[in-house]
UniProtKB/TrEMBL annotation:
<feature type="transmembrane region" description="Helical">
    <location>
        <begin position="66"/>
        <end position="90"/>
    </location>
</feature>
<keyword id="KW-1133">Transmembrane helix</keyword>
<keyword id="KW-1003">Cell membrane</keyword>
<dbReference type="InterPro" id="IPR050901">
    <property type="entry name" value="BP-dep_ABC_trans_perm"/>
</dbReference>
<protein>
    <submittedName>
        <fullName>Carbohydrate ABC transporter permease</fullName>
    </submittedName>
</protein>
<dbReference type="InterPro" id="IPR035906">
    <property type="entry name" value="MetI-like_sf"/>
</dbReference>
<feature type="transmembrane region" description="Helical">
    <location>
        <begin position="12"/>
        <end position="33"/>
    </location>
</feature>
<feature type="transmembrane region" description="Helical">
    <location>
        <begin position="102"/>
        <end position="124"/>
    </location>
</feature>
<dbReference type="GO" id="GO:0055085">
    <property type="term" value="P:transmembrane transport"/>
</dbReference>
<feature type="transmembrane region" description="Helical">
    <location>
        <begin position="136"/>
        <end position="158"/>
    </location>
</feature>
<feature type="transmembrane region" description="Helical">
    <location>
        <begin position="179"/>
        <end position="201"/>
    </location>
</feature>
<keyword id="KW-0812">Transmembrane</keyword>
<keyword id="KW-0813">Transport</keyword>
<feature type="domain" description="ABC transmembrane type-1">
    <location>
        <begin position="67"/>
        <end position="258"/>
    </location>
</feature>
<feature type="transmembrane region" description="Helical">
    <location>
        <begin position="235"/>
        <end position="258"/>
    </location>
</feature>
<dbReference type="Pfam" id="PF00528">
    <property type="entry name" value="BPD_transp_1"/>
</dbReference>
<dbReference type="GO" id="GO:0005886">
    <property type="term" value="C:plasma membrane"/>
</dbReference>
Length: 273
């Protein structure tokens, strides 16, 4: 009883955080189930009649094209970022050579480059490569700007892995290639999950590069597609909220799955040794 009373302030704080973070999502779903007139007259009430047309109409529009474009770009970009960043982090974290730290700090300096300063050169490069107005034009910039923070995360995590595991694998005849893929990479699950969550959310919501490097509806991503709900003189708020609700499902799924991997990886690491 005493322990429960001592934890009461934590429970209250957790409840307040839940209300504070959960209310926007509740408001989004509540609004998506209303009609435009009902929302304009009473935006804070519960819907008097569920307007499921806001959701069903999305499947009959170009929304699904935007959705799948974002899914393809985000998935490919995140997978390549994980592979490339993990491979680049291996020599930086496990090998000793003169340029180790300078190369590492060079990657970290990439985090300091403002994205908007690169729009013009990336646009020109994309045009010269013949990739303009394709979803493939987005993958390169997304990977490039995600690699610095990803290398930082992988390198710091990899340095905490005991070197005895690597030495034991080397004694058994494993080279660097097999040591990385068979020994180290499976142990990077928490770092992989962290990199996946961070980059997937960022790439899924990215707007500027998608606006500059694509021009047709066929290759537009979801953030660009949401602009269609803006009229010249009005905004279809319930329809937009329905689109946002469906568009947020992949983010919620990735977060829940990857978060579980992070917790399991940390828990497994805490009981080893």
């Amino acid at each position: 009883m005493i322990k429960t009373a001592a934890k009461l302030p934590l429970y209250v704080l957790a409840l307040l955080i839940l209300v504070f973070t959960g209310f926007p999502f509740f408001f989004m779903i509540n609004t998506a189930l209303k009609g435009q007139f009902e929302f304009m007259t009473n935006p804070w009430s519960f819907p008097q009649q569920l307007q499921l047309e806001n959701f069903t109409s999305l499947f009959e529009s170009e929304f699904m094209s935007y959705f799948f474009n974002s899914m393809i770009v985000s998935t490919i970009s995140v997978v390549l970022v994980i592979i490339l960043s993990a491979m680049a982090s291996y020599p930086l974290a496990r090998m000793k050579f003169k340029l180790n730290r300078p190369i590492f700090f060079l990657f970290i300096m990439g985090m300091m480059i403002p994205i908007h300063t690169t729009l013009i050169p990336i646009f020109i490069l994309t045009k010269n490569l013949g990739l303009y107005d394709t979803i493939w034009a987005l993958i390169g910039p997304y990977i490039a700007f995600a690699i610095p923070i990803s290398i930082f995360i992988f390198t710091q995590f990899m340095q905490e892995i005991p070197k005895e595991l690597e030495e034991a694998a080397s004694i058994d005849g494993c080279g660097h290639y097999r040591v990385f893929w068979k020994v180290l990479f499976p142990m990077l699950t928490p770092a992989i999950s962290t990199v996946a969550i961070y980059n997937f959310i960022h790439i899924w919501n990215e707007f500027v590069f998608a606006l500059i490097l694509t021009s047709s509806k066929e290759n537009a991503t979801l953030p660009l597609g949401l602009r269609e709900f803006y009229g010249e003189f009005s905004i279809n708020v319930p329809a937009m909220m329905a689109a946002l609700a469906l568009g947020s499902l992949p983010l919620i799924f990735v977060y829940l799955v990857a978060q579980e991997k992070v917790v399991k990886g940390l828990s497994a690491g805490s009981v080893k040794g």
